[in-house]
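Appendix B. Chain record.
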Amino acid sequence: FCTKDSLSRLFACCGHVQSVEICEKPTPGEKKEKQMSKFFNQKTATGFQVAYVVFRKPAGVQAAKALSQEGPLLISTESHPVKTGISKWIDSYAASVVDPEELRAEVDTYMQDYDKKIEEEEAKAAKEEGVPDEEGWVKVTRRGRKPGLPRTEAAKLRVLEKEKQKRARKELLNFYAWQHRETKREHIAQLRKKFEEDKQRIALMRAQRKFRPY
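Structure tokens predicted for this chain:
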């Protein structure tokens, strides 16, 4: 029930409220503002929370400290009632329904910003490529979505060696395949030769009336 809007409205009597930040627990320093998505990375905190109310002028802090002497602040009033029960559940359900057009617009905006960031990084890398620094070192960059190898003589030799090994493996596999085919062909030829020899021997035994199959 205690939201940023309700806290901003309650402390508005002390001065202009610049911002309100709600956290799960106290933080050691000022929390950096992050652009949170309405649809993604939304973590709902449960239980007690800590709120940081920032006023535009220091006088607002002093006025807020003096509020403890005037009594408690009411979040739910006649002019600003807090919804509970079925009304709150209906609003929560309505808020959970995603608008496809709004979601598409946010995704398109995010992808445009991402593409722009990638283009800027690639342009910066292209500008710095081959330029020595103050100590004379040359920074080797990998541009593009598919990073390439550094353009050095050692890298070229490694590429040539890999291609040579790849070609040798391919030739060896082809040799093994050819050898397997030759072995199979020789085995079939031997079976055919043995079959012909058996046919001739059976024919000879029949002629001599010595063939007894049973």
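Further analysis of this model is presented in Appendix C.
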